[in-house]
Structures are given as C-alpha cells and as structure tokens.
C-alpha cells in the first residue's frame, strides 16, 4: 500500500507542475468598460417651421349597386355564364361556362359515362 500512496503523491506533484503554466491562462479577467456619456438630442432651431400633420384624405364613395337584370338572370339560368356576357362581363361569363361544364364532364368521365 505504501507503494501506491507514493506513486499517487508523485503523480499529484507531476500534475501540479504541468498545470502551473496553464493556471495563468485559466484565470479570467473581466474587461473594464469606460463610462458612456448620456445621449442628448439637438434642440430645434428657432427658424425651423413647426411640424404640421398632413391633411386627411377625403373618402371616395362606393359605386352604386347594379340594378337587377331579369334578362341576364334568365339567360344565366339557361346557359351558365351567358347572363354575365350579356351584361358586358365577358371574361367572367366564359370562366363560369368553361368551369361548370368542365367539372360536369369530368364527373361523367369519373362515373364511366353512366347516367346516375
């Protein structure tokens, strides 16, 4: 047992000798921060114009609603999109027509063209 204690003490001394140069590197020093002056804003010059809020915009009234068009309603009932075309909204009418009929025939194709 005495041999083990001596070897432990020798190892401890060797370790402490090896760590001496590193102990200086391991110490942490906190850097000192110089004090900062408080921030001051420049004063407004006497000849500068006073600040004025911009004028508020005048609201634009909404357009009047379209009157009911029974002719366009009847045509849209017969052929979807035709009422919009009669009212002058050609793009919307064509979109309704193509969209509705493409979905209809796609559904028929899914059902293998059988009448359900």
Summed up, what is this model?
By secondary structure, the protein is mainly alpha-helical. 53% of the residues lie in helices and 0% in strands. The chain has helices at 2-26, 70-78, 82-87, 90-110.
Helix content: 40-55%
Head-to-tail CA distance between termini: 99 Å
Radius of gyration: 45 Å
**What is the average of the pLDDT values?**
82
User: Would you identify the regions where 5 or more consecutive residues have pLDDT less than 50?
Assistant: none
Q: Structural class, from secondary structure content? A: mainly alpha
Query: How many helix segments?
Result: 4
| Binned strand content | under 5%
Order of helices and strands: HHHH
Number of strands: 0
Which overall shape is indicated by the principal axes computed on the Cα atoms? Answer: elongated
Largest sheet: none
Structural account:
- The protein is built from four helices and no strands.
- The chain has a domain at 70-110.
- The longest helix is centred in the first third of the chain and has 25 residues, at 2-26.
- The model has no long low-confidence stretch (mean pLDDT 82).
- By secondary structure, it is an all-alpha fold.
- Helices cover 53% and strands 0% of the residues.
- It is elongated and about 110 Å long.
